[in-house]
Amino acid sequence: MKRIVALVSCIGLSIVSVASYACTSVIVSSKVTGTGKPLMIKQRDWSKHAHNKAVYVEGPVYNFISITNSHNNGPSTVGGINTEGFCIMNTASNNSPETKQDNAFRSGTLMYYALGRCRNTKDFENMLDTLSRPLYIKGNIGIIDADGGAAYYQFKYGKWIKNDVNDLEKNPKGYYVMTNFTEVAKDKDMKGYYRYLEADAAMKDVDMKTITAQTLIDRVARSVYNIRTGIDYRRDYAALKASGVFNGVAIDQDMIMRTSTVSALVFEGVKKNEKPSHSIMWTIFGNPGCSVAIPMLATGRDIIPDYMKPGDKKTTLMNRISRKIRKKFLYPFEKESFSANEYIMMDNLIEGTEGRPALLTCCENAERRIREDFYAIYDKWCSKKMKDEEFYSKYVSTSASFINYYKEEFKSYLD
User: Fold this and answer.
1) Residue 46 has what pLDDT?
2) Shortest CA distance to 88 belongs to which of 224, 284, 265?
3) Rounded to whole angstroms, how far apart are CA atoms 113 and 185?
4) Quick one: which of 120, 187, 205, 276 has the fewest CB in 10 Å?
């Protein structure tokens, strides 16, 4: 173990890892969900790196799926899932005590190595304890695992501080929100605070007994609520249009879903004593307002759909399609002025124009078809009515249709 962590530490010093400029995340404890499964979401904002890819990695102990920038070929990740149901993601911290260190960008590298070696939060903590000091982790790391573990890790002067989401005495809500500030830092420059409040507001209304991964996608990933103005464009759209003072274009600022959003990951863990490989990573490449969630599983082999892998153009087909829709219909003003990317076309998102359905309606219809086909085989597999090899084969053929469902539902935006 000491040799492994020494290697991690050395590589971490030499590689600038993937760090998200701004992210919104939530972890939900299995103690409050009706399914008994933990949930976790990461909404990633970094317009500089708008293209993502899924990579299957044969790790030293466990195989895993890593989500990273399309151009990145190094040992770094923005989030992932391994064969033991260990799921990990991060959010950047703008007020972290580690910020002023020259090599304080190693959370992506640390997560990559954890995916290949850790089974649960205890393994991760042991790994942190045996790493060379100082750590210099600029960010907050979130984890759920197949043992029911659910926690955030914050870092302060080389030490780690755990926020146990399962501790219902300290965290009676049963969920925890984290954006782009470290709570334990002395510097109270809390970047992402409005998004923190918006995510918390979205979660407060959720019935935890019926919460699912789709709930987090709909309520958090696709949130266009601005808590400072009090306007929720999905809730208030009809009233705003009826007022005659709203032309269907909104200023895109301090909302969870925004112009810089490039992906979203929603991790669906497993029940106690369930096979860890049943854990799911629902993956959205592109802005959630014009892209869809694809279910992916970390198994003993690479079954990632081809359209989630980089092709000849060094990006994925899913990225190319979603970016095309985003540029033309969701944020169509970007070339008009320096700040034009700060405007979002709510008419297209919520109502639809020129005979086209709303973008959100297209998302909902495509995802409904994806879920129906996926759960038709997944439920049989989980209930032992389908063996592993048969499931893997059926998943490959079934998931190949998901991209077609996406293109069919968005046809009027692609013609």
Assistant:
1) 80
2) 265
3) 26
4) 205
Q: Where are the beta strands (DSSP E) in 253-396?
A: 261-268, 280-285, 294-296, 343-345
Q: Which residues contact 368 (CB under 8 A, 6 or more apart)?
A: none
Quote the crossing angle between the two packed helices 107-115 and 2-14, to the nearest 10°.
150
CB 259 within 8 A of CB 341: yes
- Strand 261-268 and strand 39-45: pairing? antiparallel
Helix (H, G, I), strand (E, B) or coil at 390: helix
Report the run of H or E that residue 128 belongs to, with start and end: helix 121-130
Q: Which one, of 344, 352, 281, 327, lies nearest residue 81 by Cα?
A: 281
User: In the chain, which residues have pLDDT < 70?
Assistant: 1-21, 47-49, 95-105, 182-190, 313, 337-341
Cα distances (Å, whole numbers) of residue 4 to 9, 57, 116, 128, 376: 9, 17, 11, 12, 41
362-to-46, 59, 325 alpha-carbon distances in Å: 24, 37, 12
Q: What is the pLDDT of residue 195?
A: 95
DSSP secondary structure string for all residues of 137-187: --SEEEEE-TTS-EEEEEEETTEEEEEETT-TTT-TTSEEEE-S--TT-S-
Please give the helix or strand (H or E) that residue 79 lies within, else none: strand 79-82
Pairing of β 64-69 and β 39-45:
unpaired
Q: pLDDT value at position 34?
A: 97
* DSSP per-residue letters across 11-56: HHHH------SEEEEEEE-TTTSTTS--EEEEEEE-GGG--EEEEE
Tell me if 75 sits within 8 A of 126, measured CB to CB.
no
For residue 39, report the phi and psi dihedrals to the nearest 5 degrees: -135, 150
Distance CA 318, CA 311 (A): 11
pTM of whole model > 0.90?
A: yes
Question: Which residue type does 356 have?
Answer: R
Cross-strand partners of 308: none
Question: What pLDDT score does 245 carry?
Answer: 94
- CB-neighbour burial class of residue 136 (10 A; exposed 0-12, middle 13-18, buried 19+): buried
Tell me, what amino acid is at 129? D
- What are φ and ψ of residue 305, in 5° steps? -60, 140
